[in-house]
Amino acid sequence: MEELLDIRSLSVEYRTLEGSANAVQNVSIELRKGETLGLVGESGSGKSTLGLAVMGLIRPPGEITSGEIFFEGNDLRKVNAEGLRNVRGKKIAMIFQDPMTSLNPVKKIGSHFIEYIHAHDPNIPKKKVISQTRTILKDLGISPSRIDDYPHQFSGGMRQRVMIGLGLALSPSLIIADEPTTALDVIVEAQILKLLRELKTKYSLSLILITHNMGIVAEMADRVAVMYAGRIAEVGQTTEIFENAKHPYTQALLKSIPNMRAESQVLSTIPGSPPDLTDLPTGCAFNPRCPYAFDKCKKEIPMPVRNGKDSEAACFLLER
Amino acid sequence: MVSRTTQYVKAVDDVTFEIEKGDVFGLVGESGSGKTTTGKITAGLLKPTAGHVLIDGADIYSLGRKKLRALRRKFQFVFQDPLSSLNPKMTIGDAIAEPLRYLSDEPRSKRGDRVLDLLDKVGLSPAESFYSRYPHHLSGGQRQRVVIARAISIGPEYLIADEPVAMVDVSVRAQIMELLLRMQKELNLTLLLITHDLAVAKYMCNKIAVMYLGKILESDKTSDLFANPLHPYTQALLEAVPVPDPREKSDKTLPAGEIPSPLNPPKGCRFHPRCPFVFDRCSADEPALLEHTSTHRVACHLYTTEGKTAAIQYARGKRMSNSIPTPRLNKP
User: How far does chain B reach from its first CA to its final CA, in angstroms?
Assistant: First the structure.
């Protein structure tokens, strides 16, 4: 079976004092084995929530209200807590944005690995775990002698490498990386992205890369899914998305991003801003900002329309 | 007994540059580069330990309090986080009027109109409805517009924008960049843009200075800097930035390691431990920022005669004699 992950009609809701926020609405997307899927969107797009939902990390006041998450053929929503613990880390691992808050400042780096590995498999002898940890550190470009160092002794980039290492420690087949380089400097960001590419090949991983940065997506992703206000706006091969985007949001976004390599650019601006999820416009969430909006857009929500094997876009323009 | 040694951080070390009236000057660098500190110093907000800031020929830190205060009215700041820049208890109207209350001679009766005018100017329409709202009612981009309106309210000549779009949604960034450029043209402002984002700097600035660990490593007119980057650090930065174009995929050669601590910067050239073209002189002498052309300056030994010779020798795979420095490759 080609699809490693098959998300079908997934919805996630957060109940807040201001009302219900529909963080993810009716999202269907697949990830193929060995693929890097770029999940792109701005604040409120639902991209991070989608990642958390796959990991089974949605907690109250958030709740998955509908849909299925098929991983290797099994619906993760139907798996019990014990089963999910077997998936998390061992099959699917998540890497977050800020390594400092994810690492325990009073534990040595080595202890992070040992505890993590032992939590999932208490029977592995400690010596073996330590030797495994040293190998991982080498893969990450960290000297194995640093196994006894504390997080504060590492720089930001090194800590993120440690986080990636922890993600890989139990040999998962899928990594979900949520804005892994946002908090890092330019050159370190490039180093980390390079590392992710190398590790992906070395360990035959599949990768979901969640980001707001179209540059990262262009560099790393095989396919791109663009999200807006909790829904999928468009999906396609990376080159298709950049050269021939179908959804007005994607088109507008690409035209508004400064590209250093361009000779001279005139940026077009998108009026307005991403909507408040507790107060979404009726119809297509992008319609107030869309240059092509017509009557139907303000009344009904467009469903994704397939065009070609790998592409789909949720826009009424494509029905005309 | 507990004792403590005081360590010093040279946040900005021997930095020299000139900004001409009407420039949009970019100070580009990663963390610890000293760009924000430099910006504050040029605005009269932070007294330097040594050196001078001359505005229209006057040394601003030698002026008396009254004159400095008068000069400070000519500078305004736009910071990165629009939420913390606005008092959550003040309405938008009051926030924009605040500098007018304290720093201008505008009569109170005219203030309201002026604020409405400014709201229109920055694209917050209808102005009347924004006037009485509070910051938490507005989106990030709208808040940043309010901050800009407040900054231009007293008619400054010099605006310092420190990462003005870093915390704004991607689809809104172009709006804010365009607003800043429009204000710059309409009000004949001189703009100092501090950013780590090279794409933003390229779009907005006509001149750029690249900083690293408190030093300027290279400065040039924007188009030339991108077409012809001289300093290995600038080259590395340009190579590292992920570009929104999938055809640009390349196997990047990146400098090894990360930015060292400013508490203990490397001896000689601060970039030398990570530089792919390092040679002996680099760890011994700090390179001066020298003119390569009248508009392009670079602080790198590769561009001295000795450096050029060393580079040629390295390329030829041989050394002339022991007295000529030998470049060695820093493994990435």
Answer: 45
B142 touching A (Cβ < 8 Å) = yes
For the CA atoms of A130, A132, A135, A141, the dihedral, rounded to the nearest 10 degrees, stands at -70
Q: Which superfamily does CATH assign the domain made up of B24-212 to?
A: P-loop containing nucleotide triphosphate hydrolases (3.40.50.300)
B221 at interface of A, judged by CB pairs closer than 8 A: no
E strand or H helix that includes residue B3: none
Tell me the nearest-neighbour CA distance from B310 into chain A, angstroms.
Answer: 27
For the record, the structure tokens of B162 come out as: 């420190």
Domain ranges of chain B: 24-212, 232-243+265-332
ipTM: 0.89
Q: Domains of chain A by range and CATH?
A: 3-91+172-319 (3.40.50.300)
8 A C-beta contact, residue B280 and residue B297: no
Q: How far is B175 from chain A (nearest CA, A)?
A: 5
Contact B17, B295 (CB under 8 A): no
* Lookup: tokens for B13: 């070390």
* Cβ-based neighbour number of residue A5 at 10 Å: 23
B246 contacts A187? CB cut-off 8 A: no
Name beta bridge partners: A7: A29, A69
Question: Could you give the CA distance from residue B49 to residue B273 in angstroms, rounded to a whole number?
Answer: 28
- In whole angstroms, give the CA distance from residue B145 to residue B124: 8
A232-276 pLDDT per residue, tens:
999 999 999 999 999 999 999 999 999 998 888 889 888 888 898
Tell me, what amino acid is at B133? R
Contacts of B239 in chain A (CB under 8 A): 190
pTM given for the model: 0.89
pLDDT digit string, tens, across residues B241-282:
999 999 887 778 888 888 888 888 999 999 999 998 888 899
Bridge-based pairing state of the strands A62-71 and A3-16:
antiparallel
Render the burial of B243-266: b for 16+ CB within 10 Å, e for the rest: bbbbeeeeebebbebbbbebeebe
For B45-199, where are the E strands, in sequence order?
54-55, 58-59, 75-78, 158-162, 190-195
